[in-house]
Design a protein that fits this description.
The structure holds two protein chains of two kinds. Chain A is an alpha+beta fold. In chain A, about 60% of the residues lie in helices and about 15% in strands. Chain A folds into three domains: about 200 residues, no CATH class; about 180 residues, no CATH class; about 220 residues, no CATH class. Chain A is built from 19 helices and eleven strands. In chain A, a hairpin with a 2-residue loop joins β7 and β8. The two termini of chain A are about 30 Å apart. By secondary structure, chain B is α/β, with parallel strands linked by helices. Chain B has one domain: 3-Layer(aba) Sandwich (Rossmann fold), CATH 3.40.50.300. In chain B, about 35% of the residues lie in helices and about 25% in strands. A six-stranded mixed sheet of chain B has the order 6-7-8-3-9-10, with helices on both faces. Chain B has a four-stranded antiparallel sheet with strand order 2-1-4-5. In chain B, β4 and β5 form a beta hairpin. In chain B, α4 packs across α5. The chains are: A alpha+beta, B alpha/beta. Chains A and B meet through α9, α17 and α18 of A and α1, α2 and α3 of B.
């Protein structure tokens, strides 16, 4: 006698029931295990990425870009948690519903409801517990292999103690508790309902409103028309549709969010440092400018130099000489210097309304928000090369003399929100902060002020950096080069700085893209489980068709239409909605390349379609193995 | 295309059903179980054959073999002149949808289709693509079984007797030469069962169909032209009762 046969009580009931249900038991177990494992792995991965990227980029990047990356990670992991929990509870609910008839029969046979409840709940407990345990262990194994020293990010950052320990406990435990509660409630409801209802549950699954003249398209054939009737009338299938639709929608937000965030962060950098711009400066300032420009992507320290050394300065006349070269479109004259700055929140009135009609007005005194070293860039607003992403616009010629734009890495500490109350003291003057911008220069520790104001503060008249936008003509470049040499200056391109920063960004996003890819895999797994559950539930109808003479091709088409048709409806609603949300709501001033949009839509559509068609094919083959004896009364 | 190719040639038969020394063995829990042991069974065109015997005698297995739903372990199975033992799955499906009507003890209607859609489905499976003609024929069949006012109901909204009447209409839908009925009154009360027997009599009398019925119901046995009695997978007796026909 096999060991499981000797078991008695709830354990024996669960063991026998699960063993006899065979395929359906495995299906529930695999579906749930897959969901728990993938959700746990994704959250482990996300937490690990956030930790490692946080450490890795603490000396690099800028506050704005980091915020974009980490906000995306938080959003993605939040959505993944919702997908995982939604899917787990749906799968458990389906698993219990499949047992509804058996529960009704056992109850009708005279089982004491309390005992029946404990037996069936224990059976569900066994599946849920083993799924969560195996899921957590599988996630740990996959995560451990991902964290191997061969992975570049791991190598760069090294061991992160305790990373993921809490996730490994919290996710499977939450999944277990949620699934257990869902199972208990479902079982309690079924056991509490009439046995007759439980036994004849067929009608409760059908939507009687959709009866009547059915929707038919003759060209698509009988299998299509039968599939539309099945899908439209089967409430269970409609519930699946809704659940799958939500999962696809959320995973598409994760995927499209990653693309939009990646493209947007790239565009922020490109807008601040446009390509095909030439830098003209003294060799020392030029090297310093390159270091400042690449401090976004490198951890090398910025050396101290005297930026305003007289030999580094370019006179206005010399700058005009560059402007006079035909083919030079813009000359952005800059005076840069490093200085200690101090932030303030101006004294202001604060009004707050208490419970009555009284309005209390308080005077909030000026607050010192701290000091830091920052790069101060004097710039001519009318000739600025750069189209920074700003919160409230860039400098204008008609702005007050002591106005500054703060780099994003100063926001939140030296510069406080709201910006109109923020002031910065630099070089002995107080500046109002007009706006904030995302700028890779000096990793966002930068302030932009009108160049005349800075010159006045420093008692200078010239500039130390010129940015030139020239046309592509080589003779123009040659002329610029000649002129620069004649002034003892060097000419270089801004492109290597930009490329270094973009490489760093691409590298960072390439790690993060694991999250949407695995999320898409999770959704494919969920879709497979959902379709398998539904096909299992309706299997008797398919066997009837086979017995009546529906051939293998007809059966395959029927299953494909049911699987893909349901998916198509979900996709039609979920994907455009997800893109809309990602593009319009997720990030400020978004940017997305059409190629990325097309590619991601194609990849997700293909992946989901392959899963739905594969599940139809698997069930069609399974149907081929059935005989009339598999028909249930 | 929905039309299922008829790959099995239906030749002019001597017998509508001709089983010669047919055996069937199943493997259950790793052990072989003999369901049928060398039985020979013939049914002429237009005859009603009743297969009787206790549960587990092999009655349903005989029907499955005749329908081509299972293949014999040994012996020949010729139905409407075609050798089903050597046909492939695709040909058997086409053969069933074109030539055989089924009536099951537990009705086995497609749960998501209404009564009339269940009937019409059989026509579609047989490759009849003229929807106007199909609808007309469906209405006639539904009317024949007395369910015109229940045509738009789902199986779950119908009583057992009504479901069985829909199953009979469905069995007629593809105008089959052979109807197989597996204990068609097994789940019904006496009165409802009588209605089903009357309908089966109509199939025999008016439509001239060949019927093979497994049953415990004496009323069906009484109307049979030939009665095969099975016991533990073996043929115990064959009776051809002589009766005065009105």
């Amino acid at each position: 006698m096999e060991a499981w046969r000797a078991l008695i009580g709830p354990l024996g009931f669960a063991a026998k029931s699960l063993r006899r249900r065979g395929f359906h038991s495995y299906l529930a177990f695999i579906g749930l295990t897959l969901t728990v494992a993938t959700t746990t792995f994704l959250l482990l991965l996300g937490q690990d990425l956030a930790t490692r990227l946080g450490i890795d980029s603490s000396m690099r990047s800028t506050f704005g870009i980091s915020w974009l990356i980490f906000a995306y990670l938080v959003l993605a992991l939040g959505l993944v948690s919702i997908i995982g929990l939604l899917s787990s509870s749906y799968l458990v609910s389906s698993m219990i519903d499949q047992r509804m008839r058996d529960i009704g029969v056992i109850k009708a046979a005279g089982a004491i409801p309390r005992r029946l409840l404990s037996y069936v709940t224990f059976e569900a407990f066994a599946v849920i517990f083993s799924s969560c345990l195996v899921g957590a262990l599988s996630a740990l194994l996959v995560y451990a292999s991902w964290s191997s020293p061969s992975v570049s990010l791991f190598k760069q950052v090294g061991l992160v103690p305790n990373a993921g320990a809490s996730v490994l406990i919290v996710v499977p435990l939450t999944s277990f508790l949620l699934c257990y509660v869902v199972a208990s409630v479902r079982v309690r409801r079924i056991v509490g309902s009439s046995s007759v209802n439980a036994i004849s549950k067929q009608l409760s699954n059908l939507d009687l409103k959709s009866l009547g003249k059915p929707f038919r398209i003759k060209r698509f054939g009988s299998a299509f028309n039968l599939a539309t009737r099945n899908v439209s009338r089967d409430r269970g299938f409609n519930r699946t549709l809704l659940s799958v639709g939500i999962c696809i929608f959320l995973s598409m937000v994760v995927l499209s969010g990653a693309l939009v965030s990646a493209d947007t962060s790239t565009s922020y950098v490109v807008r601040a440092m446009p390509p095909h711009v030439m830098i003209v400066a003294n060799i020392n300032i030029y090297n310093q400018y390159v270091t400042l420009g690449t401090s976004f992507s490198r951890t090398a320290p910025v050396p101290s130099i005297n930026y305003v050394n007289e030999s580094y300065l370019i006179t206005p006349q010399n700058a005009s000489a560059f402007r006079a070269i035909p083919g030079v479109e813009t000359v952005d004259t800059r005076l840069i210097t490093m200085s200690s700055i101090t932030g303030f929140v101006k004294a202001h009135f604060a009004s707050n309304q208490d419970t009555g009609e009284n309005i209390n007005t308080q005077i909030i005194p000026e607050v010192d928000t701290g000091s830091a070293q920052a790069l101060i860039v004097g710039i001519d607003p009318s000739n600025a090369i750069g189209d920074w992403y700003t919160s409230d616009g860039f400098l204008h010629s008609n702005d007050a003399q002591y106005t500054m734009i703060a780099g994003d890495s100063l926001v939140g500490n030296i510069v406080q929100m709201p910006l109109n109350l923020s002031q910065v003291s630099a070089l002995g003057y107080r500046y109002d902060v007009k706006s904030a911008l995302v700028d890779p220069l000096n990793a966002g520790q930068v302030l932009y002020a009108p160049v005349e104001t800075l010159q006045k503060s420093l008692g200078l008249t010239g500039f130390n950096v010129l940015l030139l936008k020239v046309n592509d003509d080589q003779t123009v470049l040659f002329a610029v080069s000649q002129l620069a040499s004649s002034f003892g200056l060097v000419l270089g391109s801004q492109d290597p700085i930009l490329n270094s920063n973009l490489t760093f960004l691409n590298d960072t996003w390439s790690h993060i893209f694991l999250v949407p890819i695995v999320t898409l895999a999770l959704t494919c797994g969920i879709l497979l489980s959902y379709l398998a559950t539904n096909f299992s539930r309706r299997f008797n109808d398919y066997v009837i068709l086979k017995v009546l003479g529906a051939n293998a091709w007809y059966r395959l088409r029927l299953l494909m239409w049911e699987a893909w048709g349901a998916l198509a409806i979900s996709i039609l609603i979920a994907i455009p909605l997800a893109w809309g949300i990602s593009i319009f709501l997720l990030v400020p001033d978004p940017n997305l390349s059409v190629g990325d949009l097309e590619l991601s839509t194609l990849v997700s559509l293909s992946a989901l379609s392959v899963v739905s068609l594969a599940s139809a094919t698997i069930y069609s083959r399974r149907l081929g193995l059935t005989t009339v004896k598999d028909l249930k009364p | 295309m929905d039309s299922q190719d008829e790959e099995i040639e239906v030749r002019a038969p001597g017998f509508a059903v001709d089983l010669v020394r047919v055996s069937k063995e199943y493997i259950l829990n790793g052990k072989p179980v003999k369901a049928l042991a060398s039985i020979t069974l013939n049914v002429k065109e237009g005859e009603v054959a009743a297969i009787v015997g206790p549960s587990g005698a092999g009655k349903t297995t005989v029907l499955n073999l005749i329908a081509g739903l299972e293949k014999p372990s040994e012996g020949d199975v010729r139905v409407l002149g075609s050798d089903l033992a050597v046909s492939n799955e695709h040909s058997l499906s086409a053969f069933r949808s074109a030539n055989i009507g089924f009536i099951f003890q537990s009705y086995n209607l497609v749960s998501t289709l209404t009564a009339e859609e269940n009937v019409e489905l059989m026509m579609e499976l047989a490759g009849w693509s003229d929807s106007g003609r199909n609808e007309k024929l469906t209405a006639e069949l539904i009317s024949m079984v007395g369910l015109t006012d229940r045509a738009q109901h789902l199986p779950a909204q119908l009583s057992g007797g009504e479901q069985q009447r829909v199953a009979i209409a469905r069995a007629m839908a593809n105008d089959p030469a052979l109807i197989l009925a597996d204990e068609p009154t097994g789940n019904l009360d006496l009165k409802t069962g009588l209605e089903i027997v009357k309908l089966l009599l109509r199939l025999k009398g008016e439509k001239g169909k060949t019927l093979v019925v497994t049953t415990h119901d004496d009323r069906i046995v009484e109307m049979a032209d030939v009665i095969y009695r099975l016991e533990n997978g073996s043929l115990e007796s064959v009776d051809r009762p002589t009766r005065v026909r009105s």
